[in-house]
Amino acid sequence: MTDLPQPRRFSQRLALVLAVILVVVGMLNTMPEIAGLQDWARDVTGIKFFRVSSFPPEYLYPPIFVLMMVIVALDASIYRAWRDTNPSRAWLGALLDGGLVFAAVLAAVGFWVEIDSVCLVDQLTGERARLIKEAAERSANVIPGMSFDAEVPSCQARFGVWIIPLLFTIITLFFLYNIRVWGAPLVAVASVVVIYTVATALIWVFDLSTNNFLLTKLGADGGDALAAAIQKSTNIFITPDGFMGRFMDIIVNQVFPYVILGALFGSSAGGTSLIKLAVRMTRNLRGGPAHAAIVSSAMFGTITGGPVTNVLSTGRLTIPMMRRNGFSPQFAGGVEAAASSGGQIMPPVMGVAAFVLVALTAVPYTKVITAAFLPAVCFFFSIFLAVMFQARREKVQAMREVPDDLVMVRQDWLNLIIICVPILTILCLLLGSKDAIGSGFLASILPSGVTQTLVNGTGDAVSAGWWAVAVLLPLLFLDPETRAAPSKVLVSVAEGGILISRLFLLLFAVSIISAFLNESGLTGELTRSVTAWLENATQITLFGVEVEIVGGVYLMLALVCAMLCSILLGMGMPTVPAYVNVALLLGPLLANLGVSFFTANMFVFYFAVASAITPPVAIAAFAAASITRTEPMRTSIAALRVGVVMFTIPFVFAWYPELLLIEEAVTITDAAGKRSLIEGYTGVVDWPALAFLGARLVIALYLLASALARFDLIAISKFESMLRIAVAVLILWKSPVIMWIGLCIALLVLGRQIIAMRQSSTRAA
Questions:
Q1: What does the pLDDT read at residue 2?
Q2: What does the pLDDT average to over 264-272?
Q3: What 8-state DSSP symbol labels residue 251?
Q4: Within a domain: 61
Q5: Which helix (H) or strand (E) holds 655?
Q6: Model pTM greater than 0.70?
Q7: For position 356, what pLDDT does the model report?
């Protein structure tokens, strides 16, 4: 029996080794253009078209796909789990582990067989070469003396009808491991989408219904149901919506260096030093430890991009600090959960979901982080206010003196370099100008090759992340513990590779949702139906009051619908699938109602992030509750109260898209496909108007935070809390008359609070 743990250790070590190989290949693929390197490699190898980076996706994706699934099978082995808990079923676990790998191999082979740029079987039989030769001869004979690029011939040898059972076998096995690694909610949603698509196809084949929601796009491909099904199944292998399409591109070509960066940060000593610095900065504030948690979680969370990871990393220090200073355990856990969730909306990195947002909206990453800046500032400002009012309510005093275990020592200042330099690298490269670097001061003092390399990496998010990793690796050795055990760095790199493999498993389920929704036509039908209903509806009844559906009521109904769907579909899920599920369904609908496509996606993105603190399945709050050892639901309610602005800010920038600072936020596409600015906007930021809007927003956030805490300078009654919430809404109303009425009432409410506090102080004296 003593030998039983050995296979477990071997399989996990093998997973780490393969993960390191994955990271090396991925980092080579995303390596920015280094001046002279490509030419040098071609001279050394003698291969004319040899590449050292940016490998062709049709040849890179399949082996990477198989490698990631082998890592998942080793890391999340069902055989290993069942061998200890239920030995009689261990053989079935081994069969499933092997099945996952075999399914990945079949998927890779299927991709190569079906995609026209490869045509694997045709390549092996020589048919491919013959077809290309014939196509070249035809193109040469179009006009004598002139040659044209030959068309790419279609694959002759395909899987045919076998592509259908192959596809569903792959889906079944991958969904099973998704449940094991990520839980059931995402697979439940994906399964419903798959079943709906198949069911509507069968309804069309057997002509069982004429309801638009029970029909399918298959019918548009003619009467041959089998041929249509084969084509649609093939699409899921080879099109951008398939599992080797845009979501594979996001993992392999866009987010890869940032995942590795987050893994290295997570194991570095910089996180603890960052918390110590935050405590030092906030020690004179009444909510000191809680404010320190906000600062450290925002900075750490923007790199890791995962709320649960952030809670478990920073929360182990910040939550005990808050409790030691007098905050209740539920509130301490709620603050950490809300701040850690907010790390996903905090520039400059924002985590994996931000790169998905870039891919779905086709808006450059630099513009995305620009658009995210003001909403993120508003969110963290509101948490600061919530902590301030709670500290007043619970009579929490400032620490003044930093506890001995949190005093900054010389090594902590060195450790901060580990955190700050990579972030500065990202900011400088993202926000820098190619022209300024190429012709500025740096160009005059640096060798031309170095200058050209900097120019190549400037303005590109992937290059910025890659150089941040390159800078971070040597900086990690500033920590004496890392110098004493250098293998820690290699293990962190491997853990990053395992995380990437798990992320792709997650995105596989998302890609299946995207592909099947596209093939079913549900998104378009839902958009048409809801838009038609809104156009024909004249009024709705709320609490017995009839409200005319005119003007902005259309938009508000759609926004509320999108909010509810985001929260419901996001329960228990990571942010990426929670965002993608709703964006695919409701993004087009919101874009049809006067909101820009980018703003609609940002709206859904915020609520996907908020799902991490939304009861009843608030995963970030539950992670915090595991540290506070309190009832998870009470912690999630506290997190919801602290982070409520995450639910209100999206409505604000939906009505005031100028808060997002970019032209794409105020640009809409009409029914004819023509792009135009929303009425009243010029595409240029009106800074005075934006400053006035910002001032209104600050007042509204102050009123909202104090109302939820039921405390300002002194305690607030229930009536005044409700009044403050109503006034906050009035202040942000688009009508100038209503807005000024709200501002006047706000001055009266705040003035009354000052008078009441002075009277209370006089009586106490």
A1: 39
A2: 77
A3: I
A4: yes
A5: helix 645-655
A6: yes
A7: 82
Quote the domain boundaries for residue 746.
Answer: 699-764
In this structure, are 166 and 253 located in the same domain?
no
Kindly state whether residue 64 falls inside one of the protein's structural domains.
yes
CB 742 within 8 A of CB 730: yes
- Number of domains forming the structure of the chain: 3
HEC assignment per residue over 514-541? HHHHHHHCHHHHHHHHHHHHHHHCCEEE
Please report whether residue 457 resides in a domain. Answer: yes
| Mean pLDDT, residues 429-452 taken together | 75
- Reference 652, options 264, 454, 379; nearest CA is 379
Handedness of CA 11, 177, 99, 159 (dihedral sign): negative
Q: Which of 460, 487, 507 is the last residue of a domain?
A: 507
Q: Are strands 545-548 and 539-542 parallel, antiparallel or unpaired?
A: antiparallel
Tokens of 638: 């506290």
Tell me, what's the pLDDT at 550? 58
Cis ω for the linkage preceding 348 (within 30 of 0):
yes
Q: Tell me, what's the pLDDT at 153?
A: 76
For every residue of 275-339, DSSP letters joined together read HHHHHHHHTTSTTHHHHHHHHHHHHHHHHH--HHHHHHHHHHHHHHHHHHTT--HHHHHHHHHHH
pLDDT-wise least confident of 18-22, 174-178, 305-309, 390-394: 305-309
Contacts of 665 (CB under 8 A, 6+ apart): 371, 596, 598, 599, 602, 653, 657, 658
Do residues 66 and 159 share a domain?
Answer: yes
Task: Encode burial over 515-531: b for 16+ CB neighbours within 10 A, e otherwise.
Answer: bbbbbbbbbebbbeebb
497 and 415 co-located in one domain: yes
Contact between residue 566 and residue 342 where contact means Cβ atoms under 8 Å apart = no
What type of residue sits at position 314?
T
Q: Is 166 in the same domain as 261?
A: no
Amino acid identity, residue 66? V
Rg (CA), the chain: 28
Q: Kindly tell me if the per-residue pLDDT of 545 is higher than 80.
A: no
Q: What is the pLDDT of residues 132-169, one digit of tens each?
A: 777 777 665 555 554 444 566 788 878 888 888 999 99
Amino acid at 280: R
Place of tokens 């859904």: 604
Tokens 């595991």, residue located: 626
Average pLDDT, the chain: 81
Q: Is residue 83 part of a domain?
A: yes
Q: Where are the alpha helices (DSSP H) in 350-486?
A: 352-361, 365-393, 410-431, 434-439, 441-445, 448-457, 461-475, 480-484
pLDDT at 765 over 60: no
- The CA distance from 408 to 275, in Å, is 10
